[in-house]
Structure formats: structure tokens, C-alpha cells
Amino acid sequence: MNAVTVYWLVFISIFVIVYSIDLFVTEHRKGNISIKESLSWTVVWISVALLFGVSLYFFFPQNPFSTQKTGPIMMVKFISGYLTEYSLSVDNLFVFLMIFTMMGISEDNQPKLLKIGIMISIFLRILFILLGMELVEKFEWIIYIFGVILVVTAYKMLVSNDEEQVHPESNILYKGASKLFPVDPDVHSPHFFTKINGKRHITNIFLALLVIGSTDILFAVDSIPAIIGVIKEGSLNILSPSEENFLAISSNVFAVMGLISLFFALKGIISIFRFLKHGVSFILFFIGAKMLLGAFPSVGIFFSQHSWISLAVIIGTLGMSILLSVIIKEEKEKLELENVESETPTRQV
Description:
Layout: H1 3-27, H2 35-59, H3 70-102, H4 110-138, H5 142-159, H6 162-165, H7 172-180, E1 193-196, E2 199-202, H8 204-232, H9 241-256, H10 259-269, H11 276-293, H12 297-305, H13 308-327, H14 331-343
Antiparallel strand pairs: 1-2
Helix pairs in contact: 1-9, 2-3, 2-10, 3-8, 3-9, 3-10, 3-11, 3-13, 4-8, 4-9, 5-8, 5-11, 7-8, 8-9, 8-11, 11-13
């Protein structure tokens, strides 16, 4: 077996183990998972992904058709793709959280929808990656279209308001299903379908699943140009198509592993990610601009020889967005603090 096949087997094994543990932890919990426990599991899954990426540096063999070492390039591209897709996946979780809140999904039903939503996301991402990679292989100019898509997406993400975007009742699948089938008035039913007086009804969580599924499609459309830009741009045929596909799929799937645990911590640490959207939009703009500037051979050669620069930009941007979220207080917090200070009586001596 060649190195790619071996790593595919290792990757699939890790995915099955991680996903099974993540499901077991969330399904066999006693009460709600604490923020501390959720963050602990999240750190474990991130560490597993990064160790997998580092292993590429040490164990991936040299490509006989290239003068550059394959392992370091594989590692840098995997970690760059993983961090980019992970940040997008966290943004996806925020949308899930808003959907659950706006549709009144109970905490008991949220894990079920979250698990199905993540599996749909994995399936769509793999499908779109294979399709996108194949298109770029046959028509290289498509990579410039992907670059434009990323730049436009970055702008929309920067100026948009997530709360204005999430309107479940306006979703085409939501409206279609609610017109075709009667809706069970019990909004907390744990089933997707129920029977009332012998007539089949759809439930609130089924409608939520339709909204989540359509949201997954939109996020997959946004994320695939990003991962293709990270993996394809600047490689100059150093990596084979099979290696590029492996990196794109494995980094993407690793990015959604462990999100079930992270979801339960989001409500308590949401302020830490206040500026994440701004950071992600800059990363998408950077990748898109790099893809477009790749039309100049000197740019492609530069990023091929200095692939660590992209990784440094991604890490620095994510770190800065989290740091700013911690340092800069939200307006609501400022007002509350001012009110507390104004209400505090002064002691006279």
C-alpha cells in the first residue's frame, strides 16, 4: 500500500473513534455538559487533528517527482486547511444555535439535530470537494472564479448581521413542508413524524432539520472554495491529485469532528468569539486574493516556496480575533458596568 492509502485508513479509523466517543459523551451525559467538560473534549479533538497533521511531516515519504520535501508541505497545507475550515465550522455552530433558539428547540432535542446536521455537513463537503477538485484539474481557470467567490463571501460576511440572515419561516424547505403536511402542535416532540387522529404530522424538529440541512448546503458552498484555495494554490504540481484530495477531505472532516462537544460550551463562551466573523472574513479574503494573484507566475512561485506564510496569516488572524474579543468589551457589558458604578453609593468620611 502507498502512503496515501495508509493515511486514508488511519484517518477513517480516527474519525470513527472520535465521532463515536463524542456521541457517547453527549448521549450518556447526566444533565447538561458543563463548559469546562465541553472545552476539555474540544481541546482533545483539536490536539488529535494537529498531531495528525504533524505526523505528515515525519512519516509522509518524499515525492520522487519533486525536489521539495512532500511531508512539510503536506503538514502546512493540512493545518492551514484545518484551521480555516474549523473557524468556518464554529461560525456554522452559531447559526445552528440561533436556529434552535428562534424555533424553540428544547435542549433534549438539540443533540439529535446537531448530530444529523454534522453528518449532512460531512457528506456535502466531501461531495463538493471531489467535484470542485475535479473541475479545477480539468479547467484551471475555475480557480479564479473560486477566488472571486471567496472575496465576495468575505465582504458579505463582514457587513452582514447573522440575526438578520436566520429566518426559519422564510426557508423554502420550511414553507414547502409546512404547506404539504400538517404540523404537530407539540413543539417539544422528540420525533420527526407523529400521528394525530390517524393522520401523519411533521414536527417542529423535522422543520428545524430542513432548515439546518439547507444551511449546511450554503456553508459547504462557502467552505469548498476556501479549502481548494489552501490546498491547490502554490502547489505547482508538488502534490499529486490523490494527495490533494486527501488533504482537502481529511482537514475538512477533522474540522467538524468534536463540534458536538464544543456546541455545549458556546452559550457560555460566546463572547470569546465575538470578532471571529471578522477574522474569518479576512482569512477568506486573503485566500481569495492569493488565488487571483496566482495568475502572476511569480506569486505562485513565492507561495509555493513560502507556504508557511499562509499558515502564519491564518493563525495570527484567528489569535487576534479572539484576543480582541477578550480585550474589547461589548456595548451591553459597558452599559451594565456603568450602571453598576453609577448605582454604587459613595462613602463619605
